[in-house]
Amino acid sequence: MQPMSLSARPRLAALLAMLAVTVLLGTSASASSESVIYNFNSVSGGSDGYYPYAGMIADKKGNLYGTTYQGGNTTAYGVVFELTLSGSTWSETVLHPFAGGTSDGAYPETGLVMDASGNLYGTTYEGGTYNEGVVFKLTKSGNTWTETILHSFAGYPKDGSYPLGNLVFDSSGNLYGTTYYGGSHNYGTAFIMTQSKGKWTEKVMHGFAASGDGYYPLGVLVVGKDGYFYGTTEYGGATYNAGTVYELFQARGVWVKKTVFEFTGGAAGCYPLAGLAMDTGGNLYGTTYQCGNDNLGTVFELKAGKNNKFTQQVLYSFTGGDTDGEYPYFAGVVLDSKNNVYGTTYEAGSQSNAGTVYELKLNKGKYKESVLHAFSGGSGDGCYSRAGLVLLKGNVYGTAYACGSHSGGVAFEVIP
Fold first, then answer.
1. DSSP H or E run through 113
2. Which of 131, 181, 191, 306 is the most exposed place for a label (fewest CB within 10 A)?
């Protein structure tokens, strides 16, 4: 099984299916409704951002925050935005347009994380001192947001480069993340950022290698109850090179990386492009971009066992066509309090092959999929969602990368 590089994978057209076998679970229709809450404007020279690659986060008031890959004044290097609800109308505020160059980031492909004080943190894929991406912070004072560059990635061989996964805090206020390239073998890194006297310092925890080690890490790291961190790599594994799930932990002050699961392709899924979600029992949930019964991607669970051993169960294999989505492209899953699973797919669906929002509902120990929304594209809806979702008061919020009334993508709400 030969992997395809990230740069070679198309952004507006997924790969063709290769194999088809029996479907495990059926798809049902849903009485849910979707509404576009904001249309991003791709008009050249405008101040708005466009092409929201990543999902959004919510604050305690229900305001939503996210990033766009391009747009923002004349530089078009992307923005950080806020969506605020007043009555029944959502309005957008651009909090920061990226300027690129050596002094700012450019092209954010990831979402944001918020600290207890309401400050926002994220990464950009390019920009900074070495043009290999940055970690940034946005601090609010009154109605003004001020950006600070916390770290510029320096790349191979001592540092990571080109971050594609969201950041995460631990209980001590340290930040953790991954880069897709860079590190000692140029196959990506996991890093930690610590703060002392107001100054942030970055340290590489692990430089991924090829072959038996997983490589090209993607998605957010998940913090377990034991203080371990869990993540995915797009490729790697001792036998199939179909991707891995790994854990990171400290032992006597040294960071140790251990592979806890290797994808085998076929019905078991391959190429996890997103991070993981964890339930209260320590079980992990995620998606694979390909393989599964129809080679259109899967949703999986890794059940936690004794001695930190995990056992995989494929919860759903996407079937594509007019009745289902296909290719959960960079889109992980989110869990509600009942362990129902929500996510997006990049293509297929009943409308215009423009992707779906789906729910896997748990009933008597089994999951059944419902398509909550099939994107129709064009000017009336978004298309090609490559982002995870956020749950807010029982409703689902997310972004679609393209289409909408201004062709710059949309933010949407789905009422299940």
1. strand 113-114
2. 306
Q: List Cβ neighbours of 259 (8 Å cut-off, separation of 6 or more).
A: 212, 213, 214, 236, 237, 244, 245, 246
Q: Which two tokens stand for residue 322?
A: 């007019």
Q: How many CB atoms lie within 10 A of CB 277?
A: 22
Nearest-CA neighbor of 167 among 102, 112, 216, 117? 112
Residue 299 corresponds to which tokens in the numbers above? 């949703």
Contacts of residue 333, Cβ cutoff 8 Å, sequence gap at least 6: 274, 277, 285, 286, 287, 299, 341, 342, 343, 388
Q: What would the pLDDT profile of 69-125 be if each residue is shown by its tens digit?
A: 999 988 899 999 999 999 999 999 999 999 999 999 999 999 999 999 999 999 999
The reported pTM is: 0.92
User: Count of residues for the chain?
Assistant: 416
**Cα separation of the two ends of the chain:** 38
One-letter identity of residue 1: M
**Closest CA relative to residue 14, chosen from 404, 231, 325:** 325
Alpha-carbon distance of 409 to 67, in angstroms, equals 12
pLDDT of residue 252: 93
Cβ(105)–Cβ(149) under 8 Å? yes
- The DSSP result for 317-366, as a single string, is E---TTTSEE---S---EE-TT--EEEEESEESTTTSB-EEEEEEEETTE
CA pair distance 257, 203, nearest whole angstrom: 15
Calpha distance 244→240 (Å, rounded) = 10
What DSSP letter does each residue of 174-243 carry, written as one string? Answer: -EEEEESEESTTSS-EEEEEEEETTEEEEEEEEE--STTS-EEEEEEEEE-TTS-EEEEEEE--SSS-S-
Nearest CA among 276, 223, 277 for reference residue 250: 223
**Tell me, what amino acid is at 368?**
K
- Surface-to-core class of residue 203, CB atoms within 10 Å of its CB (0-12 exposed, 13-18 middle, 19+ buried): exposed
Collapsed DSSP state (helix, strand, coil) of residue 90: strand
pLDDT of 8: 41
CB 220 within 8 A of CB 165: yes
Distance CA 316, CA 341 (A): 11
DSSP three-state, residue 9: coil
Asked if residue 380 lies in contact with residue 398, where contact means CB atoms within 8 angstroms, the answer is no
